[in-house]
Amino acid sequence: MEYEVFGEGVPLYLVMGLNTQMVAWPKELIDDLVGRGYQVVRMDNRDIGLSTKTPGPPPHRRAVLASVLNPKRANPDYLIADMAADLVGLMDHLGHDKVHVVGASMGGMIAQQLTIDHPERVASLCSIMSTTGARTVGRVHPALLRGLRTTMLSVPPRDREGAIERSMRTWRLISGPHFDEQRVREMVELSYERSTDVIGGMRQLIAIGASPDRTRALRGVSCPTVIIHGLRDKLVMPSGGVATARAIRHSKLVMFPDMAHDLPVPRLPEIAHEIDRNAQRAR
């Protein structure tokens, strides 16, 4: 796993989402958390960025879409639980017995599973714009699904500009009113320079579809938990965040009216505050 460590203090892990490299975590959020006394660790999940890629032929794009719509047809190389186990390996490597964990989107699923499987390693949990894995909540909005289907099933461009524009189309679709074209483009360009692999995201998507519903297991989570979600989110609709909060007793639900499936810059101080406030409960 490729990872970066910022600052000194109590370890806090930032786990990014589907097909998204660790460089998508805003620098302002990292700096804010470091300033609050945390040692922030961010990483590329398996199959993304500079982390190890799964060998073997790529899954067919239509098979990927079918696995999302009908999970029983999925043929995963791994599950969300395996990605959570990757974090345990990283914790062991860095000598961290217990950490605060923050996950966004698929990263929230990984963080939830880590807390379920290894509760002794998690001091506090923050799940952002994520869901429980139940098929009835946190679904993609039909209007957004149509746009994403076109992108998913199209042949990935081989040239740099084409690949970057393809990514930008996706970010425009899922982001909210605070979408910053220049800022996102810089992140997308950096991601392209780090890795041009387009297969890992498909494998991760199959892993999401094939992983079981976490609702019942989440009822056993006892560490301090905060769930953050945007009311404008159409990729993981707000019902996913509500369901997560209902499943985890004594959790706190924070919903921003101007946030979609993104981390809007104007909300970053509040997000950092909620992460810190939740972590303080663990102390």
Blueprint (SSEs and pairs):
Blueprint: E1 3-6, E2 10-15, H1 27-35, E3 38-43, H2 61-69, H3 80-94, E4 99-104, H4 106-117, E5 122-128, H5 142-153, H6 160-174, H7 181-194, H8 200-210, H9 215-218, E6 225-230, H10 239-247, E7 252-256, H11 268-282
Parallel strand pairs: 2-3, 2-4, 4-5, 5-6, 6-7
Antiparallel strand pairs: 1-3
Helix pairs in contact: 1-11, 2-8, 3-4, 5-6, 6-7
General description of the model:
The protein has one domain: Rossmann fold. Helix content is 44%, strand content 14%. It has helices at residues 27-35, 61-69, 80-94, 106-117, 142-153, 160-174, 181-194, 200-210, 215-218, 239-247, 268-282; strands spanning 3-6, 10-15, 38-43, 99-104, 122-128, 225-230, 252-256. The protein has a seven-stranded mixed β-sheet with strand order 1-3-2-4-5-6-7, with helices on both faces. It is globular and about 50 Å long.
Offer a quick outline of the entry:
With 283 residues, this protein is of the alpha/beta class. The chain has helices at residues 27-35, 61-69, 80-94, 106-117, 142-153, 160-174, 181-194, 200-210, 215-218, 239-247, 268-282; strands at residues 3-6, 10-15, 38-43, 99-104, 122-128, 225-230, 252-256. The protein has eleven helices and seven strands.
Strand order, sheet with most strands: 1-3-2-4-5-6-7
* CATH topology category name: Rossmann fold
Mean pLDDT: 94
Q: What's the architecture in CATH terms?
A: 3-Layer(aba) Sandwich
Distance between the termini: 29 Å
Radius of gyration: 17 Å
How are helices and strands ordered from N to C?
A: EEHEHHEHEHHHHHEHEH
Per CATH, the class reads Alpha Beta
| Shape annotation | globular
What percent strand?
Answer: 5-15%
Low-confidence stretches: none
Range of helix content: 40-55%
Largest sheet geometry = 7 strands, mixed
* DSSP E strands, number: 7
Class by alpha and beta content = alpha/beta
CATH superfamily: Alpha/Beta hydrolase fold, catalytic domain
Number of discrete helical segments: 11
